Amino acid sequence: MLDANLKQDASEYCDEEAASVEGIESVEALATSYIPWNIKLVKAHKAWAKGYDGTGVKVAVLDTGIDYNHEDLCVYGGVDFSNSGDYMDYNGHGTHCAGIIAAREYRKKIVGVAPRAKLYAVKVLDNDGSGYTSDIIAGMEWCIDNGIQVASMSLGGPQGPSVAYNNAISKCQLNGVIVVVASGNSGHTKYFPWVCSPANSIQAKTWSASPIAVGAVDKRNRIAYFSSRGHKYLPWNPVGCVAPGVDVNSTSPGNKYEEMSGTSMACPHVAGLAALLCQRWNSSDVYKIKKQLLLGTYYSHKYPTSMDKGFGLINCDRVVSTYYVNMYFDSLAEWSLLA
Fold first, then answer.
1. What is the pLDDT of residue 283?
2. Comparing C-alpha atoms, which of 172, 184, 264, 157 is closest to residue 210?
3. Which residues are part of the catalytic machinery?
4. pTM here?
5. Cα dihedral across residues 287, 284, 263, 166: positive or negative
6. What 3-state class would DSSP assign to 198?
């Protein structure tokens, strides 16, 4: 188990490491180093060049834990709700998602969307990758109590909308925690629930209460065959946007790296973008950041997107550069009028 002293030492190391690369030097280093295809596709490197790299933003990964000893990850703390005894990742899923959010480019193999964000491991799934709704909700409560600004949740199942999940996610976002979730890997089945739980919702989609459900695309921005789609006639159950989710290379336990596919890989890209916006405005205003993220994504495309992709492929550069919050749309449901 990682005891309190080791956690403190890890946090101090991360702070010292971040301090050594602050300012223009860190932006230039990131901007001129090797940039993976997925980072180029979402244009995160262009946001870094403008000074937005997630510095200081607290991002929690609700998953199988994180390998806090990985050379490319700085984990500032965490908690275990899976009865595993520690928030170390012995599965690999959580560590992979964490790297997509905030890998530090230690050996120029990969880099995350928000490489200077502060990672927190909230272990709600056991070493086999399974867990209980009650543990996931406890993890969300922990995020509220510990000042987390963005919660990345690459988990779920083929259930319909859950009152328990819905209430917990709403509570998170009403308390300043932006919740980003994977849409699911059920593909274009056209069968209920289309988008998997907890990405779906029993509420009408609003800018403040509901989560951002993320679908997956490949290197050519083509929707992945497995990516769960939204439904044209149920505006409470759409995909919010899409991000890379096919053969994405990221961190793996034991200082390793591996490629994985799934909407689980797409979700942390958007969590990273949310972290960039939190830094951009020095704020965790959920209404403001979600509206900016989704409308900025939509208006970065030359042609209208499809229901399968929601507002479309995220564009970190456009979203941090142009102000969209004052646009009229009051409800996420209204986006269907744009498609």
1. 78
2. 172
3. 63, 93, 264
4. 0.88
5. negative
6. coil
CA dihedral 138, 144, 147, 148 (to 10 degrees): 70
Find, among 54, 58, 61, the residue nearest to 27 by Cα: 54
Query: What confidence score (pLDDT) does residue 68 get?
Result: 98
CA separation for the pair 106, 104 (Å, rounded): 5
What's the confidence (pLDDT) of residue 205?
58
First to last CA, the chain: 50
Residues 158 and 68: beta-carbon distance below 8 Å: no
4-337 maps to CATH 3.40.50.200 = yes
**Residue whose pair of structure tokens reads 């997630």 in the numeric block:** 54
Per-run averaged pLDDT (10 residues), the chain, 339 residues: 35 49 38 81 97 98 98 97 96 99 84 98 97 96 98 89 88 94 86 78 65 95 91 69 97 97 98 97 85 85 71 94 66 40
Q: Give CA torsion, residues 27, 31, 36, 39, to 10 deg.
A: 70
* Stretch (H or E) spanning 78: strand 75-80
Helix, strand, or coil here: 112?
Answer: coil
**Dihedral angle computed from the Cα positions of residues 58, 151, 146 and 157, in that order, rounded to the nearest 10 degrees:** -150
